[in-house]
Please model this.
Amino acid sequence: MPSDNRWFDRTWLGKTIQFTNPPSAWKITQKRRESEDRFTRDEYETSGFFSESSCIFLCEEITDTSHPQAQAQAQTQAIMKVRMQIPNTTAESDEEEYDQPPEAALRGRTALEIKALQYETQAEEGCVPGGFLDFIVMTRVEGVALSGRYLRGMEIDERRDLREAFKASYLYIVDWETWTRQSREWNDKEYWAWGLD
Model:
């Protein structure tokens, strides 16, 4: 159940996240995209789905500039994905509710090719005190932004190959993203939603 809330506001820009696995520090430099999966109290009770918002940021590694070698190195840029538990909604109103996840539900989340990860619980002033707050830093993938203009310049075979690669990647990512749900069935409308029609 989507809402107009933005859980990752401007205060996240410039924030530095300290990681222990491995020890590193990453500064958030740009917000790319935010999305949410929001459930009612009934949906939570029948399925165990926690409402969550996730945001993709660009970030850069903060190095110890007191060492001469660190000064000579360019800062490493990466993608940081943050997942945060948000309040459930009720079907009858906009009243928000939440349940703190059991400790077992907070363990065991992984992503491939990660640079750093951190699992925390939200502080008392968080939107769900005691709720989950996960940080994952991944390698930033180089490539071309697929604009409509770029796609129109491609040959038919190239577009077909691109769509097949997109579909395989999308299904893999979505299955990881919505780890509490069954694997999603593919629908060709996704091409339109992502500008690949």
Remarks:
- The beta strands are 16-20, 23-37, 52-61, 77-85, 88-89, 96-97, 114-121, 132-139.
- The chain has two domains: 10-139, 148-194.
